[in-house]
């Protein structure tokens, strides 16, 4: 390197084509006791329309568990979003800032199984704080 060159520059070019709108489904639902059941139906219909019927049982179970947790911890509407890319991504957002913690429930415990199931069945999952609360998500590989 010559003495005249004191700084290196790297240019990164990314071509992002985005996600087609027909591969995104989003709902804003009130946190009612019937909301998890409603979400399972929405997931079932959406995945069916996307030709992902083999993914329906696990995806509707996991989405229902995340929504059940949101219903228990929030008073304001919950946002549910499904995205189809090379994976299926499900995001559930609510206004509670407390992040969930995975724990292995005891054999006689009635609560605490939802996130445990997500942890066991999803390819990846996570949670993050957002301006209005938190988002909990999971992804499943598309066969």
Automatic annotation (TrEMBL):
Protein name stated in the entry: ATP-binding protein
Record organism: Microbispora hainanensis
SUPFAM superfamilies: ATPase domain of HSP90 chaperone/DNA topoisomerase II/histidine kinase (SSF55874)
The entry's keywords: ATP-binding, Kinase, Nucleotide-binding, Serine/threonine-protein kinase, Transferase
Domain of life: Bacteria
Record keyword Transferase present: yes
Molecular function GO labels: ATP binding; protein serine/threonine kinase activity
InterPro entries: Anti-sigma-factor_SerPK, HATPase_C_sf, HATPase_dom
Pfam families, alphabetized: HATPase_c_2
Residue ranges of every copy of the Histidine kinase/HSP90-like ATPase domain listed in the record: 39-139
């Amino acid at each position: 390197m010559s003495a005249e060159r004191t700084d290196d520059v790297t240019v990164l070019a990314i071509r992002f084509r985005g996600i087609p709108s027909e591969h995104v489904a989003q709902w804003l639902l009130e946190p009612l006791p019937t909301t998890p059941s409603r979400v399972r139906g929405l997931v079932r219909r959406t995945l069916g329309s996307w030709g992902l019927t083999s993914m329906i049982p696990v995806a509707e179970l996991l989405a229902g568990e995340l929504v059940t947790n949101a219903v228990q911890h929030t008073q304001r509407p919950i946002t549910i979003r499904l995205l189809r890319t090379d994976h299926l991504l499900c995001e559930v957002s609510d206004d509670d800032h407390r992040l969930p913690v995975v724990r292995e429930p005891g054999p006689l415990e009635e609560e605490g199984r939802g996130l445990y199931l997500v942890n066991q069945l999803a390819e990846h999952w996570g949670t993050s704080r957002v301006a209005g609360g938190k988002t909990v998500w999971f992804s499943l590989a598309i066969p």
